[in-house]
Amino acid sequence: MTRKVVIVTVIGVLVGAIGGYAYYHFIGCASGSCAITSKPLNSTLYGSLMGGLLFNIFVPKPKQEK
Asked: Any transmembrane segments, and where (predicted)?
């Protein structure tokens, strides 16, 4: 893995974690029965996973020589 891949993925994880916590804080789950949004830790971890995966899509693949 190159340095660029790591940096972009870490930025995605951070943005996702902030987004996940913001989702918990502003929307959340009133009844407490939602698996992801009932606790801030679950929501933050899920957001960071999704953010890392999403940002990792935008890293260009290295060209392979024939």
From this structure: 5-24, 44-60
What domain count does the chain have? 1
What's the pLDDT at 35?
A: 86
Arithmetic mean of pLDDT, 28-48:
89
Residue 66 CB neighbours (<10 A): 2
Does residue 46 form part of some domain?
yes
**Is 49 among the domain residues?**
yes
Print the domain residue range for 34.
Answer: 3-57
Return the structure tokens found at 38.
């009932």
